[in-house]
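Milestone 3.1: sequence recovery, worked example.
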């Protein structure tokens, strides 16, 4: 590229309770960005190697903190090299998403809302049955850049809403 910086790194954390559509929407956003010629990496907490998110403590909250810390670290590295990073992770603790926001210059939080009834219908992995004591725990973001009620819009429209925001904010050229 001869020293040109055609793309600035950005981290987009797509958050929300399990089965709200994080993986599906992040894949659509990834595809759209790649079609536009952007360098994109998608980090899905359900797909990352267990060595990155392994249980490092018997304490649930500490495990959640460590998992988020590891995801943030990888995202920072990629962002530093001008990659658009899509984190698809519940990110249950608001404090961890706030740490990401403070430590990453170009950070966008996308909050996916979805009804419990529909999330339960989508629960093919039975997460809500297997983890009843923790699955419902989620600290909603105070001021996410984007809120999408995924029961009201299609996956394609949700992805387009994110792309539109990135264009309007000058992240995409």
């Amino acid at each position: 590229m001869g020293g040109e910086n055609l793309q600035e790194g950005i981290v987009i954390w797509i958050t929300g309770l399990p089965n709200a559509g994080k993986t599906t929407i992040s894949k659509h956003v990834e595809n759209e960005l790649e079609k536009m010629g952007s360098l994109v990496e998608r980090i899905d907490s359900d797909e990352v190697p267990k060595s990155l998110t392994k249980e490092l403590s018997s304490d649930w909250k500490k495990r959640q903190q460590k998992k988020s810390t590891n995801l943030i670290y990888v995202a920072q590295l990629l962002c530093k090299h001008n990659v658009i990073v899509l984190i698809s992770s519940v990110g249950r603790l608001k404090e961890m998403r706030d740490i990401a926001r403070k430590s990453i210059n170009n950070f966008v939080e996308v909050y996916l809302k979805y009804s419990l009834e529909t999330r339960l219908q989508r629960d093919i992995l039975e997460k809500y049955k297997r983890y009843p004591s923790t699955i419902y725990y989620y600290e909603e973001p105070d001021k996410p850049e984007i809120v999408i009620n995924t029961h009201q819009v299609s996956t394609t429209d949700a992805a387009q809403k994110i792309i539109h925001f990135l264009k309007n904010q000058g992240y995409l050229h």
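The first strand starts at residue 10 and ends at 15. Strands lie at 10-15, 40-44, 84-88, 107-113, 146-149.
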